[in-house]
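Hi there, hope your week has been kind to you so far. For a while now I've been wondering how a particular protein folds. I'm sending you its amino acid sequence along with the backbone structure tokens. Could you read through the record and tell me how the tokens relate to the sequence? Take your time with it, there's no hurry, and the full record follows here.
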Amino acid sequence: MPVISPERMQERYDAILEAAKQVFADKGFEAASIAEIARVARVSDGLVYRYFANKRDLLYQVLRAFYERIMPDPEAEAREATGFRERLHRLIARHLEVFVADTDLCRLFISEVRVARDYEGSEIRALNRRYTSALVGIVTGGVAAGEVRPDVDPRLVRDVIFGSIEHLAWRHVNGRSRLDIRRTAGELTALLADGLCTARGSRP
């Protein structure tokens, strides 16, 4: 049997992962099949199982790659901005951009992954927590700088903001309306900052 180079193995892995992303996005997790993923990737069914344990493993690897791609963005946005209000606005706008850029994966995550029985305690939940932790850092930093009220719970703010964004973006995710990132980010930032900030931090 010929030896396959590491480069060729990586190419096959990437091709299967990209095919899985496409099929999951088009059909959803339950309706997708390994056979169709293999067809799109132009490999045999058996080869898919050489790289991935099962369909659930494939889904989680697709989402892990998604998080690795978007993970640096909130942290970078926070470092570049000045003051709590601007940091909050940039993070909200960036997260809205994720829904626009990766609509299919966001829909898949909300409708099928997060409600799955094995989501709690999974690697994907841990990655989601790590991604949203940038907001906790922004709120904590705002408290330390005297811009945010000291009685504010950063984790509650995290849940409120990401839950609000998900609700606002849901119609876009389902193809029923277009998400206006600039307007939505501005309105949501103003609404939240007015409730969170001290007099010092409320100045735009």
Remarks:
- The chain has a mean pLDDT of 87.
- DSSP finds ten helices and no strands in the chain.
- Residues 6-27 form the longest helix (22 residues).
